[in-house]
Write a structure and sequence with these properties.
Shape: globular
Mean pLDDT: 84
Number of domains: 1
Order of helices and strands: HHHHHHHH
Radius of gyration: 20 Å
Main location: membrane
Helix content: 55-70%
Membrane topology: Multi-pass membrane protein
Subcellular location: Membrane
Largest sheet: none
Transmembrane segments: 7-27, 47-66, 78-98, 118-136, 157-181, 201-225
Low-confidence stretches: none
CATH class: Mainly Alpha
Pfam families: AA_permease_2
Structural class: mainly alpha
CATH topology: Amino acid/polyamine transporter I
Number of helices: 8
């Protein structure tokens, strides 16, 4: 339980950082720049001290969740539909800019002494993107709020797993097909970046805007699951009993 809670907290920070990157990219397109000190996590080499936008996102979602699960559920459902539409638009638009040569070699050769290329590279990459699947696990944490969980939870988990994985693969194929994989190194908003570089500025800005809104749904899901775990700890006596009480909302 404690390990799972730590996993959720790390995931929240990771997702909020991604939201911050998209927000900054969107603001830059309008000529607005944040001070370097407030543009990212602590990094003395770059002068970054605090990611103000990431902290703002977490606080905002926390306030929304405090208003009640039903209200948040309506917001999240709308956001998810919006995200799916934009992902499909990205795949359709990006597919028109695919260059087959970028897929060669499909699996780059392994470089000795590194984690790049070959089966080693695939496994190293898989170990880094596992966090993208935390949301599926978070669904199970909300079983107590689910109607007929014995039937709906398995369907929801498997359905979202297959759908999400399918979109992950399609988006990755489009991204790598549009430009050589190496161009995305260190880029926190690769999809919008690829669209801008391909000349699809309107679609890129639309994607960034929806990402700014859409990443909130991930934050909502993870923070909601985190609060459910903390409630369970309080109820079971692992934390203060006050945390095991449910607000009537």
């Amino acid at each position: 339980g404690w390990a799972l809670l730590a996993e959720y907290f790390i995931s929240v920070a990771f997702v909020a950082s991604g939201w911050s990157a998209y927000m900054q990219g969107f603001l830059k397109s309008m000529g607005i720049y944040l001070p370097v000190a407030l543009s990212g996590g602590f990094n003395p080499d770059t002068g970054q001290i605090f990611d103000a936008l990431a902290a703002f996102a977490i606080l905002l979602v926390t306030v929304l969740l405090s208003k009640g699960v039903k209200q948040v559920a309506r917001i999240e459902n709308g956001i998810v539909m919006l995200k799916l539409i934009v992902i499909i638009i990205f795949i359709a638009v990006g597919a028109t800019a695919i260059h087959p040569d970028n897929y060669v070699p499909f699996i780059p050769a392994h470089k000795a002494g590194t984690h790049f290329g070959g089966l080693t590279g695939i496994l190293a990459g898989a170990s880094q993107i596992f966090i993208a699947y935390v949301g599926f696990d978070a669904i199970a944490a909300n079983t107590a709020e689910t109607i007929n969980p014995q039937k709906t939870m398995p369907k929801g988990l498997l359905g979202t797993l297959f759908l999400g994985t399918g979109f992950f693969v399609l988006v990755s194929l489009v991204l790598v097909g549009m430009f050589k994989y190496s161009i995305y190194a260190g880029n926190a908003e690769p999809a919008a970046f690829a669209l801008r570089k391909a000349g699809h500025y309107f679609t890129a800005n639309l994607l960034s805007l929806v990402a700014i809104i859409g990443i909130f749904s991930a934050l909502i899901g993870i923070l909601l699951a985190s609060s459910r775990l903390i409630y369970s700890f309080g109820r079971d006596g692992l934390l203060s009993p006050k945390l095991g009480k449910i607000n009537t909302k």
